[in-house]
Each structure stands twice: as C-alpha cells, then as structure tokens.
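Board notes (copied after class):
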Amino acid sequence: MMDKIKELREKTGAGVMDAKKALEESNGDVVKAEEIIKAKGLAKAESKSSREVRSGKVYCYTHNGGRVAAMVEIACETDFVADTAEFETLCKEVAMQIVSMNPKDVDELLAQAYIRDAGITIENLVKSLIGKTGENIRVMRFSRFKLGEE
C-alpha cells in the first residue's frame, strides 16, 4: 500500500492522506485513484476562483533562436507559491503554448488543448496547480511577438 501511495503522490502531487483516501475509494487501483485526485483538485480549484490574486510572475519565453517570443502575466495569492518550481513550470508551459498556438486572448488560450497533452486544456493545467497549491491562480494577460509581424 505504501508503494502505491508513493507512486500516486509522485504522479499527482497529492498529500499522503489524500492519496491514501483515493486508493481506498478505488480499491487500490492507482489509475482510478489518480482520476479521483484530479477530480477533487478541479473541485478545489473552482472553490478558490473568487479569491484575490496579488502576487505572481511576468514570464518571458523566446523560441526559434529569438524569432518568436511570448510574455505572460500569471497571478497567484502569495509570493510563496509564485516562487515554487511548479509555478515557474506553469508560466513556461503557458508561454510556450502562446508561442506555438498564437491565441487571440486569454479566454481562447484557456480553452486550447495543451500542446504537450491534447487530453487537457490550458485551463485544466492551471486548475491542476490550483488543486496542488491551494491558491487561486489566474492567467491575467499576454503578448506574443514574431519577428517581422505587426
């Protein structure tokens, strides 16, 4: 059982008790337990959506030898979360999405299929980190630049 809890925690970032409860609920099936944790994380994210975000990062990403770049502002509730590796990774992934898919606004960006996993949207990617951190996280704005484009 401990091996399954460890595996589930590594895959989802869930706490020990959450992993244990999900495994009990799924009768030891790690795949089902992972789905349970994701569903609970999305529910947790929804409950946090009205909370104020006053911290975060402005993240810049360049691609193709400096020919395309994106700058994105992603906000969260505290500097503690903004300074985590997971938040930094989210910023990078969202900026890469912007460079690759050229969305026209934040709503379109959030609705897009994630370039690394078409089974989830960018909104779900953000919500999964909300579930892990317990803080509201929001993509505020972005700009995309491509050499020679106006």
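Comment from the instructor: The chain is about 55% helix and 25% strand. Residues 21 and 31 are 14 Å apart (CA to CA).
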